[in-house]
Design brief:
The structure is a single chain. Helix 1 packs parallel to helix 3 and helix 2 packs across helix 3. The chain is an alpha+beta fold. It is built from five helices and three strands, in the order H-E-E-E-H-H-H-H. It has a three-stranded antiparallel sheet, with helices on one face. It is globular and about 50 Å long. It has one domain.
Length: 143
């Protein structure tokens, strides 16, 4: 299966800027980057106002996991870290822009779209919390 954007030459910085600009256009109150040990951006953190309160979100780019997927798919450049990083950010950019297009139809709210990436009081995203204790979030039988 061909990975979307696997031929992109667009620098990661441009994709990151496009994501950030879209978030700001749609109401983000602040943006910040978290870097890994090599100085690459590993997550884009942002604030959204929801019902009068500001909520923090952390949108990660798991480019090393992405690298394993493209290796498995037989993409020859899988071992080029800059390539993997660039393509991963381009795919994430497409996802964010698609979510914003859905928001513009008024079918969802921006916080609703990014709910899995909401930062909890523990500093972890809601998705990370659920992944570690999924049973705590089951609805049960309804009785």
């Amino acid at each position: 299966m061909a990975i979307k954007n696997y031929t992109t030459k667009v620098p990661a910085k441009k994709s990151i800027d496009e994501i950030q600009n879209s978030l700001i256009k749609h109401g983000a109150k602040g943006c910040m980057f978290e870097f890994d040990d090599q100085g690459r951006i590993e997550s884009l953190k942002f604030l959204l106002e929801f019902d009068g309160s500001k909520m923090s979100f952390s949108l990660p780019v798991e480019w090393r996991k992405f690298q394993l997927v493209i290796k498995k798919d037989g993409i020859k450049r899988w071992d080029d870290e800059d390539y993997c990083y660039r393509v991963a950010w381009r795919c994430l950019r497409d996802w964010v822009l698609a979510q914003m297009a859905l928001y513009e139809t008024k079918m969802v709210s921006v916080p609703q779209v990014f709910l899995p990436f909401a930062v909890t009081s523990s500093g972890k995203t809601l998705a990370e919390v659920i992944a570690h204790k999924p049973a705590d979030f089951f609805l049960g039988s309804g009785k």
